[in-house]
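FW: tagging you since you asked about this chain on Friday. Here's the raw sequence from the shared folder, copied in full. Didn't touch anything.
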Amino acid sequence: MYIGRVIGHVVATIKHPFFEGRKLLIVQKLNLNGTPSKTYDIAVDDVQAGIGDKVLIVDEGSGARQILHGGTTAPVRAVVAGIIDDVEITA
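HL: got it, structure written out here
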């Protein structure tokens, strides 16, 4: 699981049937200080996130599939599980 920022979306006319009607977002991972890293994921949006939103990503296949309605066998590795309002680190 990690915090990221939505930086784009993916459009595909030919895709696995599971992705029909689902939004795919490009999410850039953020470092603990909030700066962007050089890595990203393509994640299924389950919370209606948009470009610029700070989001919580579940990036472990089995956990991500459980979020998407009960552990489907769809080819999913990452899911947007929440839109983040604020992050506070006390250390």
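FW: The chain has one helix and five strands.
HL: agreed, and The first strand starts at residue 2 and ends at 10.
FW: great, closing this out.
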